[in-house]
Each structure stands twice: as structure tokens, then as C-alpha cells.
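User: Hi! Is it possible to get a structure for several chains at once, not just one? Here's what I have:
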Amino acid sequence: MRDCAAARSEPGEYWFTASGSEEAVQQYFSRKPEPDVTLESNIPEKDFNSAGKGSAEVKNLLKRLGVNSEILRRVAVAAYEAEINVAAHSLGGIMISHIHEHMIHVLFKDLGPGIADIEQAMVPGFSTADDLVREFGFGAGLGLPNIQKNSDALHIVSAEGCPTLLEFIIFFG
Amino acid sequence: METKDRKYFHAIQILEDNCTGCTACVKVCPTEAIRVRDRKAQIDQNRCIDCGDCVAACEFHAIVPRSDPLELLNQFKHRVAIISSSYFGQFTEDIPYGVAKQALYELGFDEVAEEAMVTEFMISMIRDYIRANRNKRPILSSNCPAVVRLIQVKYPALLPNLYHQEAPMSILTRSLRERIRQEKGLAENEIGIFLIVPCVAHVTAVHQPEGAYKHLQDGAFSIGMVYGKVREHIKNLQNQPVEIETYPKGLTWALSGVQAELVDCEDIRALSVNGISNVMEILSRVEDHYLDQYDYIVLRSCTNGCVGGCFNVENPFVAMSRIKKMIKEGREHDIDVTELNKLYQEGEFDVAPLAPRPIMELDSDIKAAIRKMKQINEFLTLLPGLNCSACGSPTCYALAEDIVQGKATIDDCVVLLKRHSKEED
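Assistant: Yes, the chains can be modeled jointly so their relative placement is included. Here is the combined structure:
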């Protein structure tokens, strides 16, 4: 992550944990276990033709592991929405998926320009998408709320002028 | 045709003597069911969905679609043909619809029925089903047997979304058998009902129907074979045409796009998709609930729908254009649906819940699956990534998986072998 000293606002942090998952989430982040399988993919800026490839790859891999279809759908939706977010709003970034036996942890790191007000961005319908993005049929302001709805934990670190880190966790069982 | 002594009946057959091991079929198979081993193609029976793409890809006549021989008719007292609508798109425009139909009697059928007869009834049944199942969206069409089997193997989570009612040719079979039994006083096994089908998946569906509660058809003849046999008769019949009932407005069933337009109405939004790679892309999006805004999706494995099936002799676009012309120029035809409605109300067209045939899982145990996935990734880093299929597996990934599953070795990679031999020089 780039240094945030030049930020015009204080770095913001957003945490969401689904009720009942608090302990498991905390345990995961404190222990940081080695993932069994890792996938990485690039998300180029405003490239809507290839945005979605990373989430498709993850979905395919989880299918091969025999992960239950409802979980599969939640991972696919959360990952796809986050991927589109990076393509639509940032200068590009990467998606890293850590697959464990009981869960998946997906990270999105972009090159900025950051989210000025994360709480506001979490409100369904709020969007800063420009015309190009809307032309592609995105930018309805449902991306982040949709990610949260499908995740067991969501963590966002960002500030205006800074890169954004978004990560979510979904448990398999 | 022998259907009992096999695990899963498939109407696609490999003629080993003709197979050169070229891997053209391996590359086109949508479920990666084909491998070339010892220079011969082999089909994994559990993965095959009978789409027929390999039949079209083979240049050596080594993959042939099977269908029943016409001699089968001799085993029955009363013989009925049910023709797929795409049949009528096969003939040049100087041959009238009626003559093409009349010629079928010359092959030994006592009765000739058309899939097109029940199209309108089918549309109302589909709408009825869509409205009665509001909790499931979208409803997926189940008429294409290859699509049904694709969903069973690759998208089992979508099985509940399939339209769980029999297809038009099976509906006709049920009602015709019932009527003939009563009218002629014949026993069930004296009546032979046969489909004249556009593709190999329909042959498979006749011999191994999915979800059928009752005895349906007694055999399936290929449109191509029938086409070859009726041509002589057509020449003779053209000089002495007779009045024969036809159902031009119902021919829409052969065209996926037109079928979707018919189902589409004020409260039902329909989408039409054809061609197996398009179908797979759409199914993946349906899985993620990105297409919930549609009430009904018509899915057909072949280009333009059944007119694209591998048994047809005419190009799917030309056949489509001819059928559209017949629909446009044809007259409305009132069909009495009282009997069909009665059977429908009695649940006679119900289909049993379809069972998954999953092929995607590396192992039933997630721990073992992860272990295998790690091994696959290790082999992948060694392989060249050219996806050349020269090893006999469709991609480098598939070879890595085959190695881990014990079905191949790293020495099968021709490119690595060449690199190693150079290093040794």
C-alpha cells in the first residue's frame, strides 16, 4: 500500500461482520493462516471487457472444490461487484483470492484515487460513477451494499487521494 | 438399439478405424469429455451431453451419430411418425410443405403427426407454468436435451429452474398413444411411435429420457436418413398432390428466437439464446442471479435452434429463412386441444425432478479436492501453456488435471518432450 501521508483527509476504515461470524473472522485475521490455493488477476482501469474474469476464475475453482452452490453464488457476486468497482472507479488494481478449506478471503488493491466517505458509499443508490461507466450499464450505487450483503465480513480502508483496499471473507459452511 | 447394458446411453459412436487422433473433437467438446489416448479418441460417458459438436468437427467420419434403422417399423402394427419442425426447412422451395409431409406415409407410417401441431398449446402451458412458479426465476426451457444434460453436469444448482413438463413431441406421443389405443383397440406394444429428429441429443433422449414417468417413444430416426429416403417419393408425389393438413403457424418451435417471442407477453419477459458457448455463458450468469429479470429463457444448443442440429442437411440460416417464409404465408389452423388439456390437468405431462450428474468436483471431500488443486497448479507451472491438445487433452489445465486424476502422465506433453530432447543433444 502506498503511503497515505499526502491524503487530504484522514484515512477511513470500514468494518462489517455478519452476526455469528465475529469470532471466526477475528481468529482468521489474528492468525493469518497460509492459504491452500491463491489466485491473482489484474484489473485494468475502465476495461469492462475483461472485468469479471477474475471472479469467473474463482467461481470455477470453487466449483471444482465442490463448494455448495449458494456459497458459490455469494462469492461470485461479491467478487464480481468488487472487480467492477475497481475497473469503474479506480486507476486499476489487482484481485487476490486466498482459498482455505473452510473459507475464502478475497482482497482488492487499487491505485487510487480512493473513497472520500466510505459510510456514504455504503448507502444503497449512492454512486459517483461517471458517464462512461453508466454507459456500460454500471454505476447504480449497489456495488458495495451488494458485496456486504453477500459477505460474512467486509473491510475497506481508503481515503481521498489514496489507494483503496477492500477485502471480504465468505465461509463455506 | 441396445440400451440396457450400458451405464448411460449415448447416441454418439466413435469408429476407431477412421479415427486419426487429430484432436479436432477434443478441442470443441463443451464439457471436455473427449481425450485422445493411444492415437484414438475416447468419450467419457459421464461427461458427454450428446450435443453433437464433435460430430460436426470430425473430418474423418470417425464420430458418427447413431439413430434407429427404419426396419424397426416392422415390429409394430400401427406406426406413427412425429416430425420435428426443422424437417420442413430442409427442402428447396419448389417442394410444397404438404408433399414433404405426404412422402413420409410412403416410408411405411400409418399416421404422421407434426411437432408443430402442439406449439400453441405448448406456449400456453409454458406461460401457465411460469405464472404458477413465481418463486423460481428465470424458468429455463427444457426442450433441448443437450441443454438439459449440460445443466445436469455443469450447472446442477439450476436444475430446479428447468421447465419440468414434457416437450412437444413427448406430449404428442402421450396423447396419440392414448387415442390410438382407444380407437384401434390395440395393446400398448402394438403401437410404434417414432420421432424424426434433427439431432443426436434427441436420439439419446428417446432411448434414455430424463425425468419421464411413462413410456414415450419407440425409436428415433434422423432427418438426414429420412431426407435421403423421401426424395424419390417426393418426385412422384409432386405430380399428384393430395390435400393434406399442415400446421405452418406452429413451425416456430424449430427457431429459438421465434419461440421466445411467442412466450413473451405483458407479464412475461423472455430471452432467447442459442449455440452451446452462448448457452454456457448465460447459465453462468443465471447461477449468479444476474438474469433474474427474465421470466423465461429459451436455451438451444445448436445455432438458431433445432434447425442447426447435426442431422439436418440444410444450412441452419437457410432452413430458418424457409421456415419463416412458411409461417408467414401459412394459414391459421384451429386445433382441438380438449384432449391435451385433459391430459395436462391430470398431470400426464409432468416430469420427475431431474437429478444432477456433477462432473466439476475434483473430489467429494474438500480436503482431497484442495490437495488435488495444489497438485494441478504445480503441474501447470511445468506445462508450456500452449493449449495445443497434442497430448490428447483439450488444454494444459485439463492435462494437469488428468495427471492428478491418474489418467495421463507429464510425458504425454509433446512440447516438453521436445524441449527435453533438445537439452540432451
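Chain A touches chain B at residues 36-37, 56, 59, 61, 63-67, 69-70, 72-73, 76-77, 80, 99, 101, 172 (CB under 8 Å). Chain A has one domain: 12-28+35-171.

User: Great, thank you!
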